[in-house]
Hints:
The protein contains four helices and no strands. It is mostly helical. The longest helix is centred in the N-terminal third of the chain and has 10 residues. It is elongated, with a radius of gyration of 20 Å.
Amino acid sequence: MTANPDALIVAVPSPVEIKAVRERAGLSLKQAAALAGSPNGRAWLRYESAERQMGADRWALFLLATGQHPAYALHAHRPMPSPVIVASRAAS
Length: 92
């Protein structure tokens, strides 16, 4: 299965949609702001009250972080095993 990078970015949301998704995630304004990289809860409130328009990239990040993205989901990272480095002496 091939990932479609165009499906990652979603349409810019309406203020009503922003609030509904935040509430569905059970987050306060401050928690939602921190999760999406906004400076504080007041900044997030501006999105919900239509004082500012949220960008599609921030919205996609928020949907991913709250498990509500329509096409993608985040999964726990499994670190790669550390490479084994073997010291050897140079041939003389």
